[in-house]
Amino acid sequence: MVNKRLFLILIISVLSACSQLQATEDNSTMDQITIEQIETTLTEQNLKLEESNLPSNNVFFQQLNDVIPIAYFIDGKPLSIYVFPNEQEREKGKLEFEEKTAAAELVIHQTYATKNILVYYIDGNEETINKINSAINQLNEE
After folding, report:
1. N or C: which end of the chain has fewer CB within 10 A?
2. Which residue ranges make up each domain of the chain?
């Protein structure tokens, strides 16, 4: 009888731990931003995204932490969007970029990092930069 109770308590403990782990995984997935969400939020700021096929040898369009960016132009200026699996992988990608470009003289650019995304916008005007800031802030609040 005591063995059955211990076994029952053990089973309940294991099931409880598994359900807590699943809840944590579900919450982290909910915090992920998709490329569709980014595109929608940017276009809601009246920014026109033009597809770009910039070369991967450009430092802003290189693969970072096994993620290849999606490239656009906004007002003729390059925008690269990296969508990582999670925030930790995004941080690794950002560090990789910083290491690769530490000795380089980079053009003026804006860096946006929130949740699982990393965005670089190169040499844009103040109005566009403000709109991108608003879009990124909106994504961060969702």
Report:
1. N
2. 1-30, 32-141
Residue 14's contacts (CB-CB under 8 Å, 6 or more residues apart) are none
Rounded to whole angstroms, the Cα distance separating 75 from 72 reads 10
Q: Taking the complete model, does pTM exceed 0.90, yes or no?
A: no
pLDDT mean over 9-33: 56
Helix ranges (H only) for the chain are 2-30, 35-44, 87-100, 126-141
In tens, the pLDDT along 29-87 reads 568 999 999 999 999 999 999 988 777 678 889 999 999 999 999 999 999 999 999 99
Give the torsion through C-alpha atoms of 119, 80, 138, 66, to 10 deg. Answer: -60
State the Cα–Cα distance between residues 100 and 62, nearest whole angstrom: 10
